[in-house]
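Anyone up for a design puzzle?
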């Protein structure tokens, strides 16, 4: 019985760490993944490197093409999108 009593503080510490650290991080990762999956052509985004551009093309797989200006188009990995500044409305059919 004493051995179980010694493990109770360790179990409580793990439970508190899970609630305060691991769970919020998983929620944030899930929200980021949903944001990236919802990207469409015309959305204005910010990359983790600080580049601001408009989504020109959403490619299959892991990349998108961003228009940084009229003549500059770059390929960016989807997971490096930090924020969506403005969303485009879907076209009415």
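Challenge accepted. My sequence:
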């Amino acid at each position: 019985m004493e051995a179980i009593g010694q493990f109770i503080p360790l179990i409580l510490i793990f439970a508190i760490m899970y609630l305060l650290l691991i769970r919020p991080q998983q929620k944030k990762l899930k929200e980021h993944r949903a944001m990236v999956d919802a990207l469409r052509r015309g959305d204005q985004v910010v990359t983790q490197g600080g580049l601001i551009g408009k989504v020109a093309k959403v490619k299959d797989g892991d990349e998108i093409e961003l228009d940084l200006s009229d003549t500059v188009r770059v390929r960016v990995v989807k997971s490096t999108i930090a924020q969506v500044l403005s969303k485009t409305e879907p076209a009415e059919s």
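A detail worth pointing out: The first strand starts at residue 44 and ends at 47.
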